[in-house]
Amino acid sequence: MSEKPVPKTGLARILAAAGYSAAGLQAAWRHEAAFRQESLLAAILLALLYFLPLPLTDKTLLCGATILPLVVELLNSALEALVDLASPDFHPLAKRAKDLGSAAVLLSLLLALGLWAIAFWQVLIG
């Protein structure tokens, strides 16, 4: 059995954490179709946001609402990976955990959709 690595501190810890985060984003992009789809949609919406004649506070809110589903999708993907590791066979609790994670993604997407709909309505009615 190998020894526990010595914890990093200072700048080395920050750089290691950034590397872990980059690896997580890369894994999500490579293995999660939903994350890729939501990322592409977010990129389009955030680019569009630049051109919309909305106050900065509205743009900030829309930016957060657009990124939130990506965050929730990452957490859901992590949860699903852990459930698959812990319970490779079907189990009702494993299904419930996965369903709850999926519901969280759905709610974040509905929130983003609602806020974007309100923003488009504001732009259209001037």
What does this structure look like?
The chain has 126 residues and is mainly alpha-helical. It has one domain: Helix Hairpins. Helices cover 84% and strands 0% of the residues. The chain has helices at 10-31, 33-51, 56-86, 92-125. The N and C termini lie far apart (67 Å). The model has no long low-confidence stretch (mean pLDDT 96).
Helix content: over 70%
Q: How many individual helices?
A: 4
Look at the structure and give the mean pLDDT.
96
| Global structural class | mainly alpha
Note the beta-strand portion.
under 5%
Q: Tell me which CATH architecture applies here.
A: Orthogonal Bundle
| Broad CATH class | Mainly Alpha
Total strands? 0
Main sheet specs: none
Radius of gyration: 19 Å
Task: Report how far apart the termini are.
Answer: 67 Å
The SSE order reads HHHH
Taken together, the total number of domains comes to 1
Summarize the structure.
The chain has one domain: Helix Hairpins (Orthogonal Bundle). The protein is built from 4 helices and no strands.
How would you summarize the topology of this molecule?
Blueprint: H1 10-31, H2 33-51, H3 56-86, H4 92-125
Helix pairs in contact: 2-3, 3-4
Short key terms for the protein model shown above:
126 residues, Helix Hairpins, 4 helices, 0% strand
